[in-house]
Amino acid sequence: MKFSNTLVQWYLQNKRDLPWRQTSNPYYIWLSEIILQQTRVDQGMAYYFKFVEHFPTVFELASASEEQVLKLWQGLGYYSRARNLHFSAKYIVTTLEGKFPTTYNSILKLKGVGDYTASAVASICFNEPTAVVDGNVYRVLARYFGIESAINSTKGIKQFKQLAQELIDVKIPGTHNQAVMEFGARMCKPQNPDCEICPLNSSCASLATNKVKELPFKEKKIKIRNRYFNYLVVHTANDTTKLVKREKGIWLNLYEFPLIETSSIIDETELVAHQNFKKLFHSLNVSVQLFNTKVMVHKLSHQHIYTNFWIVKTENSNQFNIDWNSVQDFPVSTLVNNFLKQYRSN
């Protein structure tokens, strides 16, 4: 209980003034938690405000088109979060008659919601004593208790969840959960934690054994996959282009220019000789020019994408029917959006 009391006391004195802490509305709490998955608070804040403004209730979110949701999410990455958010909003409105689920188990049934998000919403909004375990919590518990189990192993995940559940203050579970997370984010930081002024420093196992930098322990990362993208940026005499909706993999349902993926970086001669290039332009007259002076590298958690954007000027054709002035209205990946910013400025 001392552990919880100390952290809660610290939290009440030091917590950040965040908009989702000013409400107990489960829709807003859920929205903030989905946005903050894999996202820093300072980056996620603007998206939270945008979503609340455009979709003030779950009903507006449910009635929006997927393209509207993806466009608003653009730049935040991990787009499956947005698709799952939209899917779950429609489920809440149609199946649950607009009533947000009120228990950990029922919240867990929402698409895209795992143990952490269900625990956060259930404890903060409905006072259910379910402990959250995220990166911040792993770090605080591993360091304070000197736990060397890998946080990304089956054994470690189970061990940390059990410990977190044992530590939770059942009277104020929401405040307790937020206190541990805030403490990990601002005091027990990944790099250069403030151990000298930490209210738990006298009883911290990793500080006593000089293992703060070693914990939490994580098993070796997965191998990064390299991919090579060649985008065909069509520009006709009528100022039109072509966009394609991705049907699988990363950036599902986002739009992009016609893509030729290769096993390595290719030059213009290899590009023009590629069967997909010939299929797209067949008898049309074209001129091809590489836009970027060096290969653009876009790094994702599991893959690095090496990209060239090829400007293909060609004759008018019915298959190139998107006006360049409307390209900005389509939801696209950060990679394509960054290109568009540079292309428009030239």
TrEMBL record:
Enzymatic class: hydrolase
Gene3D superfamilies per the UniProt record, alphabetical: Helix-hairpin-Helix base-excision DNA repair enzymes (C-terminal), Hypothetical protein, domain 2
UniProt-listed CDD domains: ENDO3c (cd00056), NUDIX_DNA_Glycosylase_C-MutY (cd03431)
EC number(s) from the headed UniProt entry: 3.2.2.31
Residues spanning the membrane: none
Keywords: 4Fe-4S, DNA damage, DNA repair, Glycosidase, Hydrolase, Iron, Iron-sulfur, Metal-binding
Co-factor remark: Binds 1 [4Fe-4S] cluster.
Family to which this protein belongs: Belongs to the Nth/MutY family.
Function, in words: Adenine glycosylase active on G-A mispairs. MutY also corrects error-prone DNA synthesis past GO lesions which are due to the oxidatively damaged form of guanine: 7,8-dihydro-8-oxoguanine (8-oxo-dGTP).
Protein name as annotated: Adenine DNA glycosylase
Organism from which the protein derives: Lutibacter holmesii
